[in-house]
Specification:
heterotrimer; A mainly alpha (78); B mainly alpha (177); C mainly alpha (252); A: 78 residues; mainly alpha; F1FO ATP Synthase; 0% strand; C: mainly alpha; 6 helices; hydrogen ion transport (chain A); lipid-binding (chain A); ion transport (chain A); membrane (chain A); ATP_synth_F0_csu (chain A)
Amino acid sequence: MEGDIAQLGQFIGAGLAGIGSGAAAIGVGHVAGNFLAGALRNPSAAAGQTATLFIGIAFAEALGIFSFLIALLLMFAV
Amino acid sequence: MASETHDAAGQAASTPGLPQLDFSTFGNQIFWLLVTLVVIYFVLSRIALPRIAAVMAERQGAITNDLAAAEDLKVKAEQAELAYLKALADARAEAQTIVAKAKAEIKAELDAATAKADAEIAARAAEGEQKIEEIRANAMDSVKEVAKDAAAEIVAVMGGKADAKTVSAAVNARMKG
Amino acid sequence: MATEAHGADDGGLVFHPMDQFIVKPLFGEGAVGVFTLTNVTLWMALTVLAIIALLVMGTSGRATIPTRMQSVAELLYEFVRKMVEDVAGKDALVFFPYIMTLFLFILFANFLGLLPMAFTTTSHIAVTAVMAVMVFLTVTILGFVKNGPAFLSLFWVSSAPLALRPILAVIELISYFVRPVSHSIRLAGNMMAGHAVIKVFAGFSQVAMIAPLSILAVSAMYGLEVLVSFIQAYVFTILTCVYLKDALHPHH
């Protein structure tokens, strides 16, 4: 399989961008874990906050999706 | 870059790069998306949502009505129970009065019978006493006579003469004392 | 295309994880014009049909004691209505059909896209971006119509120290304009990523030795994707509600 230095750069860049997905996973885990900790402390208030939980997860995840997108762009579009 | 690799790979069927970034298909997607959204919007706002809202309102109404009916029935049942309890109490009171009346009647009868019996007993007792009195009086008289006779005899035996008058007076006086 | 550089001829694994997203005409070959009937058309039509089947045919009985289909329809109705009411407030119920449309379209497109051989319309940025821009424009126009220039107070955080406010205003402004981008890319990216990952795992099943493992992985990913399909529809809708709340009550 022949390639050039630009393709090498693309693949390395895409791999690095993939780290962002892991970072987003940490963020999502933080949100969910803290929600669970709070919910166990005060279960009666938890039900009303599930919407906030999902919004928080969505925000954290969006940034991970951005890095995934950058990886995809490097792989396929540049 | 992508098109170069693409050409190198020799895969003619694929579109260049990421399909999502193939701008030539954007017009098509956006057009059909708008058609879809408009159709869904009209189906929802004209047919589905009002219908579901109506069904749910109807169900709510039915539930409310049923609850009201149940409440009515409950009130009715309570009233029936009250009426039953009242009837029971009335019946009890009536029974009480009947019993009291019967008791009173029986007592009156009993009293009357007792009084009658008492009176009879008293009468009998009085009669008996009278008879005893009579017998006692008769006995007294007999005792007097016997005493007079005995006294006269005694006086005669002792050689005296005693007339009947003095003897009887002396005996009477003695008997009184 | 980078993955195709492997080629089928050199005996290695063949991955075409992105080929499932290609828009192509339903009949014949050729360029995709604006009005061409494509697989996008087909799957969007199926989405519409599925929604009609559930929400119109399902409720045609108008039964007081609901059938199964009707219960599901009512569940969805209650779910979205409650979300709009709780998050955006009672005065946002005017937009309930609009939000319900978005929610149902995304939900059904996501679920239908999970069928094997299916085309996932919501995995395309063109589709999600149109919806996100629609929401963005609705919210912005509504905000200015309802509040006038006072809508700009959304960017002026009055609870912060005065010196920080201009900086915060810039940040808020940027985050406001990033909203449609993140809103659309989140949905498209999630869908794309999930389907691509499933496809990659499916590609591994070409090797007999790891085929059972890959089938297991595909099954697991499929389960996750069902969850993600629903959650992304939910997140898109709830974020729409949150943005609507900003437009209706900008003073936070």
